[in-house]
Amino acid sequence: MDKFQKNKYRFSSTQPLILIGNDIVEARNEQVNQLVSELIKYKVLIRDLVNSEVDYSKRNELLTIAMFIINNFQLYDAFVKNEDVPIDVLHRFTRVDKKFLQKYREYIVAYTLIFGNPIYKNIQDYVQIVENSIEDEEEKNKKEIIEYEEKIGFNGIVIGKNKKNAIILTSIGEFKKVKLNQDVINGEEVKANEKKTLKDFKIYISIVLIFLVVFSISMLYKYNNVVRTIVVETTSPIRLEINGFNRVLNITSSTEKGQLLVEETNLLDQKLDRAIYKIIEYANENEMVKSTGITVTVTGKELRYNSLPETEEYIYKKDLKVRFNNSGREHKFN
Asked: DSSP of 125-171, one letter per residue?
């Protein structure tokens, strides 16, 4: 068996000679249909090849592995007989990591089928490969990558399609999903733009997700963080803890009657204005108002002017004596 030579083969960036004619397209159509059927026997779907992110350098590496299988009878015979890549034997002769071989199994199968069987001659003529010389291998690889990164759109032969999209095989061994602007058949060459998938927007999606996480954390912090404490002095003092959204985060009382008020009014997560109004209303209706009236004391972040319209309306309507101490600023209602 020949010794495995890493990077022995590469896909050529030289534009393939396009043979035009119905006979050529029909022949390639038959070959493509047969290739797709044969791939299924090897448990490989075209969409699996599209979904794999395989760059130019890695495709050349996989091509070299496929050509090693083809050029060694023992490996190729096992490949055809078992309809699978002989990973254990291949690893033993190439020393390529088994995990790598398993991960890119679909590509190895596809390349081995295409270049190992002469019935796919028209496809082989389109997907051009060359054998590297040791001296110019590095320089050629650089050139290939630069040439193809600058291209706009993709040329390739159709190997699968539906009404709006097609999967093409390019001359450098790529499997791309593209948008169709015309009706085509398998085996026909097209030039089209790649169909965008979620992977193409992963940077933007990541930014949005990071923003949402940060936003959610800040909102959660704002909700759970106490910015002011309010004590409503009835015959039983009621203590409220208010969060950054001006809602009741916690409410307590040190007396039995005050605890009953807390239970019956159910003020957790209520807006501050609504909560104070309900406490004063309950106190007024249940004889919990002192002879000197009710005192509301705000500690912490000062309340904005006119932030308690519902409470003020009730106080004036019932003609109650209520005194507010708004973080040191006092004023009276009635």
From this structure: HHS-EEEPPTTTHHHHHHHHHHHHHS--SEEEEEEEE-SSEEEEE-T
